[in-house]
Amino acid sequence: MIEEKILPQKKINGNHLENFTINEIGDDHLYTSLETPMRSDAFKLTNDEKKERIASLFGEIMDVLGLDRSDDSLQGTPDRVAKMYVEEIFSGLDPANKPKIALFDNKYQYNQMLVEKNITFYSNCEHHFVPIIGKAHVAYISSGKVIGLSKLNRMVQYYAKRPQVQERLTNQIAKALEEILETKDIAVIIDAKHLCVASRGVKDDTSSTVTTYYGGAFNTPEKITELQNYIKE
Ligand SMILES: [Zn+2]
């Protein structure tokens, strides 16, 4: 329940794999930091240059796999994948795509929790690049400012559109809302299915993963119970 407990800061760059090798860690998903690990030259290429390069490299993967790219069905695949990566499923890597959010005064003086539940999102696991499909529930208690409800949804979608691990997605949404809403009273609950677990690896199609963030006033047994009552089906 305490946020520090769900934020283990393991360093995997360098030699800090807790004495395990990459192979031994295998399918176990490590969570390294709140920030998505990005290179300092991440935005040197324009989006068009990125698409061109990804299309060429993805074409090579198809070649290595032995696919005949002259087939009508496969011909456009490298370009389609490149466009999808840059403009859609990984568009949240680009801060330029972060939703612009206006704050309003809490005119109605509503000072209880506000819960936006069942926000469906699609993300991708950064360890396998296959989909994570889930629902996010986001809640806050106004510090005097409010935002449009659809903006909660948009923030979830923005951070989902990156190669992700669920723990980081949860905390990135929470921290962004903390900043925007100028309050620590934020909760985020995510329940998601990881296709890297369902469709391959251990092939468990029924399990799902739940992660939570209870900040400020939400981090009490009473508030957690209240919130869970609102989101249960
Ligand atoms: Zn995975």
Provide a short characterization of the protein structure.
InterPro entries: GTP-CH-I_C/QueF (IPR043133), GTP-CH-I_N (IPR043134), GTP_CycHdrlase_I (IPR001474), GTP_CycHdrlase_I_CS (IPR018234), GTP_CycHdrlase_I_dom (IPR020602). The N terminus is likely disordered.
Walkthrough of the structure:
The protein has 2 domains: 50 residues, GTP cyclohydrolase I, N-terminal domain (GTP Cyclohydrolase I, Chain A, domain 1); 128 residues, GTP cyclohydrolase I, C-terminal domain/NADPH-dependent 7-cyano-7-deazaguanine reductase, N-terminal domain (GTP Cyclohydrolase I, domain 2, 2-Layer Sandwich). It is built from 7 helices and 7 strands. Helix 2 packs across helix 3 and helix 4 runs antiparallel to helix 5. The strands form 2 sheets. A 5-stranded mixed beta sheet has the order 5-2-3-6-7. The chain has a two-stranded antiparallel sheet with strand order 1-4. With 233 residues, it is of the alpha+beta class. Zinc ion binds next to loops.
